[in-house]
Hints:
By secondary structure, this protein is mainly α. The protein contains 9 helices and no strands.
Amino acid sequence: MIRVLAHLVALLPFIYYLQGAFRQQLGADPQEVLLHGMGIWSLRFLLACLMVTPLRSFFRWPKLIHYRRMLGLYFAFYLALHILIYLWFFLGWEWSMIASELVKRPYLTVGIIAAILTVPLVVTSTNKARRWLKRRWNTLHKLIYPIGFLAVVHFYWQVKADINEPLIYVLIYTFLMVYRIWLKYSQKSSQKA
């Protein structure tokens, strides 16, 4: 029951933007609203995925680990929508424009690299892939850390005026990484003692 509720909550942003698009309630520039909305929710799910281990250790909630894959897949879902909206509304599926856009806009290059790195994580997200890859699975899924870095850089670089919102995400990501490093080294030192 809790898992079903978690899926429903995770789909609420998609439903909100979908009904807003159908009712034409997304303002004067709905394409931009959709692009930003899907991108920001992708980033939020990515950060939520990275929060699982710190929350699990801090609050001693071992069952929280069961939601990490779900959060990761919703990150990928909103990321895919973000990319599709850009290709459809902003490039009109003109593939020849992609190369020039990547050269002109470095934040797009960073975003595309993050998206490409996400693909192997999605492909290997099944239990069968985990069993097949064994220890390599953990190594591969550490790609989430550079993906997180690239995602916050992508958001920060593409903002032209008010950097307050992307700065919040940069700080959250930094805190999560620092906490994770501290947790790792504190566990090592306690094992040595």
